[in-house]
Specification:
Shape: globular
Radius of gyration: 14 Å
CATH class: Alpha Beta
Order of helices and strands: EEEHHEHEHEEEEH
Number of domains: 1
Strand content: 25-35%
Helix content: 25-40%
Number of helices: 5
Largest sheet: 7 strands, mixed
Structural class: alpha+beta
């Protein structure tokens, strides 16, 4: 089962740097889930920093931001601390959320095929429906685009 725009997102729970999060407990708030390949890599650091720099804008628009990768909680704690991230990071080592959102893809790295996370972002509206998705994200300008969409939905 995977998500699709306009449909209710199945309830899920996940471990974060701030404790467990459950989607059903966030009802009434918009949720931005951004999936990224790996802590402490250049593109992921830039994306996480952009969300950090706009976190107050997302909060003012009624949204909570969550970053998701397969990294361990220990890795996430260090990444969050190093960058001063004000939002929580979800550790998804068993790829349950990655599978639900369909972000696992075959990629070519150094001439070899590897399975990894395709940089993707999802906006869930206050009623729990998937309002918008971006797949194969390019980092520059992306967070501003997500913020515009978040501001435009109820």
């Amino acid at each position: 089962m995977s998500v699709s725009v306009g449909r209710k997102v199945p309830d899920f729970s996940a471990a974060t740097t701030g404790g467990e999060v459950r989607l059903s407990r966030l009802k009434g708030r918009k949720v931005v889930l951004f999936f990224y390949p790996k802590d402490n890599t250049p593109g992921c650091t830039n994306e996480a920093s952009d969300y950090r720099d706009h976190n107050a804008d997302f909060a003012a628009a009624g949204a909570i931001v969550l970053g998701v990768s397969r990294d361990s909680m220990k890795s996430h704690d260090g990444f969050k601390s190093k960058l001063g991230l004000p939002y929580e990071l979800v550790s998804d080592p068993d790829e349950a959320l990655c599978e639900l959102f369909g972000v696992m893809k075959l990629k070519t790295m150094y001439g070899r095929q590897v399975r990894g996370v395709e940089r993707s972002t999802f906006v869930i509206d206050a009623a729990g429906k998937l309002a918008h998705e971006w797949r194969g994200v390019k980092v520059p300008g992306h967070v501003s685009e997500v913020l515009e969409v978040v501001r435009s939905i109820s």
